[in-house]
Request: fold
Amino acid sequence: MVQQTLTTPEELLRFQLRTAMTMEHDSLAALGELAKAAKSAEVKKLFRHHASETEEQIANLQQAFTLLGFKESTAPSPSTKGISKQAASLLERSAPKLRDQVAVSSALGNEHYEISAYEGLILPATAHGLTDVVSLLQANLDQEVHTSEELRSTLEKILA
Reply:
């Protein structure tokens, strides 16, 4: 398969948006798996809540595509695939009493990746004066940061 060479900032932004869409869809699928693997009701509830936020984030990305006049599509996100594989591998190897810790820790790693992905989108969108797009991406970033804080707090409780 021949890969397109990205030659303009606009092409790069479009590709990164497509990758972000894949990232969020991968995250949504992973959250379902993590919720199934989790043992405590609190952790399951946290994953269900984050899944609904992820659906909002997908809607925000869809709006960003529309605002930019881009056809909505996806692009490979090997990082999120790898994070999900790592989580599955750890869960498979872990005793039931460690499942919540592994699930929350894995989700935290994914959140950090998503934070960096949104920061990488917001900076060029800001530089191009795409205010409406930046607002959508910032809303997603804000949710990711909040979720990261919730996951960290939950992990601290598990480890206490």
About this structure: The chain has a mean pLDDT of 94. DSSP finds five helices and no strands in the chain. The first helix runs from residue 9 to 37. The two ends are 50 Å apart (CA to CA).
